[in-house]
Amino acid sequence: MSTPAVPSVPSVPSVLFVCVHNAGRSQMAAAFLTHLGRDRVLVRSAGSAPADTVNPAVVEAMREVGVDISAETPKVLTTEAVQASDVVITMGCGDACPYFPGKRYLDWQLDDPAGQGVAAVRPIRDEIERRIRGLLADLAVEPAA
Q1: Hey, which end of the chain has fewer CB within 10 Å, N or C?
Q2: pLDDT at 98
């Protein structure tokens, strides 16, 4: 007698964005991936030395494109977060990140928005959105409209 087939549950890819302070680039990247990937991607962000708050210029720049990150807070990077992620993206800040075989690691060299005004953050934000759209294509996830 054969056993009935168990329906397979599609796996949702998980992505971790890492930067030192988790107050700018990694927050924007996580917000764009959450916004565009909806529930089809599990998103985390963290920093090795998290700031107290998200950079206000970053919050304002994201608000301009309809993404509210005002309630976000910087989080500390943990080994568990890296282990639980399929893709780990460092944000060009030379951050020491635990390495685990089988994970996909990317380093996105991006200008640091720390201490910058909204006008300087906009091009960084736009480049991050472009890279997030490319990441979604790599993950075979259709971005939300």
Answers
A1: N
A2: 73
